[in-house]
């Protein structure tokens, strides 16, 4: 499994709120997006969630934004 950074936006995007970013371990980018969408929908009890971006690896320590850690430790 590899680390992927996935950014999703929920219904708060309609109010100008920033999206949420997660780092997750997955077999491929598609699996990472599906798992993050499911987690975000469950955690926030909402269905209006869309993927914004995905890339392999984790953000740089000086990236300027916070991410949620979903990899097992």
Would you give an account of this structure?
It is built from one helix and four strands, in the order ββαββ. The chain has one helix spanning 29-44, and strands at residues 2-9, 20-26, 50-56, 68-69. The radius of gyration is 12 Å and the shape is globular.
Observed structural traits:
73 residues, Ubiquitin-like (UB roll), 22% helix, alpha+beta
Cα separation of the termini = 13 Å
The major pleated sheet works out as: 4 strands, mixed
Strand content: 25-35%
What sort of overall outline do the alpha carbons produce when their principal axes are compared? globular
Concise overview:
This protein is α+β, with helices and mostly antiparallel strands. Helices cover 22% and strands 33% of the residues.
Explain the layout of strands and helices.
Blueprint (H helix, E strand, L loop, with lengths): L1 E8 L10 E7 L2 H16 L5 E7 L11 E2 L4
Parallel strand pairs: 2-4
Antiparallel strand pairs: 1-2, 1-3
């Amino acid at each position: 499994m590899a680390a992927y950074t996935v950014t999703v936006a929920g219904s708060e995007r309609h109010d100008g709120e920033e999206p949420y970013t997660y780092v997750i371990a997955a077999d491929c980018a598609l699996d990472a997006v599906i798992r993050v969408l499911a987690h975000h929908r469950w955690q926030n009890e909402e269905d209006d969630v869309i993927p914004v971006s995905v890339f392999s690896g984790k953000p740089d320590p000086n990236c300027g934004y916070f991410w949620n850690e979903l990899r097992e430790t």
